[in-house]
């Protein structure tokens, strides 16, 4: 099919790296592997921080809709609209209108809906998200948590699941040579959940200073100085590696011994899959969407949400038990390379579209 792909939160062509951009690109590649012709339909970003800013976008939305209509009146029309990650701060105001006008199926991936946002001024944006979910031929969720949330809010919506995945090609080329004392983290340095995770990690590591660990941090961002300040009292143990290419990240992870990232508020975290693909066991929290990417007790350890002492104990336990750590690292690599590859996801996604979205227009 000719697929019109749209990511209202962040275009796959956006210059700033993030998990959202990476997943958008992975979905496009999975669609292409399935034989579909994918076109990024629009670069228009609806992501805003306030309801007032959302209302101000309405004139621009109308102009963008007209641009798309004119474009497809004279050229090949899409046969399916695929929207990635619509939610209250970045709804899709384009796809439902276009799919209705051109009589094509509408599909969402990682849509989310939170009724509590209606009480905080976001009712208009939430209404757009809800209408899109109900219109969709299928709504694809990446975690059981998200799918259950959609089912509770919209019992009549058509739902399907697709586990988070990565392109494993770079990691298949890596021959893990782990340094058993080298802890690894890959994360942007920005306010919010990321900063909360850095803060929790710093607190946990201070509790196990008696162990001979080092921490290598891959990532950068607007709060780099604040992040570094969190670890200022453990001098000589932290290696700040900055932003790195995908090839460099794969190679660096392959030389690590343990991946540590609490994962406060993580939707799921593709970095966990990348670390496991390189042969690293994970220590994270049993929170949000993290259980969708880490097999607790098999490929890593998941500790209670917010329990710094438990998190520190889990890291210390794997540092002290090389046999268990090595077994988990090997299981982690098998798990991702065998079950969470781009090729596997492409087959599953193609099946979802064939069975649900391509059977007709809703």
UniProtKB/TrEMBL annotation:
<protein>
    <submittedName>
        <fullName>Glycosyltransferase family 4 protein</fullName>
    </submittedName>
</protein>
<keyword id="KW-0808">Transferase</keyword>
<dbReference type="InterPro" id="IPR050194">
    <property type="entry name" value="Glycosyltransferase_grp1"/>
</dbReference>
<dbReference type="GO" id="GO:0016757">
    <property type="term" value="F:glycosyltransferase activity"/>
</dbReference>
<dbReference type="Pfam" id="PF13692">
    <property type="entry name" value="Glyco_trans_1_4"/>
</dbReference>
């Amino acid at each position: 099919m000719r697929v019109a792909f749209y990511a209202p939160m962040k275009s796959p062509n956006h210059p700033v790296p993030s998990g959202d951009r990476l997943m958008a690109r992975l979905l496009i590649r999975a669609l292409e592997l399935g034989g579909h012709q994918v076109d990024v339909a629009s670069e228009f970003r609806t992501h805003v921080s306030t309801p007032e800013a959302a209302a101000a976008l309405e004139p621009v939305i109308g102009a963008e809709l007209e641009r798309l209509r004119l474009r497809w009146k004279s050229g090949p029309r899409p046969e399916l609209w695929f929207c990635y990650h619509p939610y209250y701060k970045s709804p899709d105001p384009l796809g439902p209108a276009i799919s209705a006008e051109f009589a094509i199926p509408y599909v969402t991936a990682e849509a989310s809906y939170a009724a509590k946002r209606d009480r905080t001024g976001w009712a208009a944006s939430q209404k757009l998200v809800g209408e899109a979910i109900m219109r969709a031929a299928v709504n694809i969720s990446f975690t059981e948590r998200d799918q259950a949330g959609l089912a509770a809010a919209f019992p009549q919506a058509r739902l399907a699941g697709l586990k988070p995945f990565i392109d494993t090609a770079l990691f298949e080329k890596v021959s893990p040579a782990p340094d058993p004392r080298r802890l690894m983290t890959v994360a942007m340095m920005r306010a919010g959940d990321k900063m909360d995770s850095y803060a929790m990690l710093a607190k946990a590591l201070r509790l196990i200073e008696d162990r001979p660990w080092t921490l290598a941090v891959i990532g950068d961002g607007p709060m780099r100085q604040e992040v570094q300040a969190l670890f200022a009292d453990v001098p000589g143990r932290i290696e700040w590696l900055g932003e790195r290419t995908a090839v460099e990240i794969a190679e660096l992870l392959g030389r690590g011994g343990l991946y540590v990232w609490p994962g406060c508020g993580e939707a799921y975290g593709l970095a966990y899959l990348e670390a496991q693909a390189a042969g690293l066991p994970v220590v994270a929290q049993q929170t949000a969407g993290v259980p969708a990417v880490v097999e607790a007790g098999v490929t890593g350890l998941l500790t209670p949400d917010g329990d710094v002492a438990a998190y520190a104990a889990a890291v210390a336990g794997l540092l002290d038990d090389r046999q268990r750590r090595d077994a988990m690292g090997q299981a982690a690599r098998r798990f991702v390379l065998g079950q969470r590859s781009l090729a596997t996801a492409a087959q599953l996604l193609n099946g979802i579209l064939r069975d649900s979205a391509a059977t007709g227009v809703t």
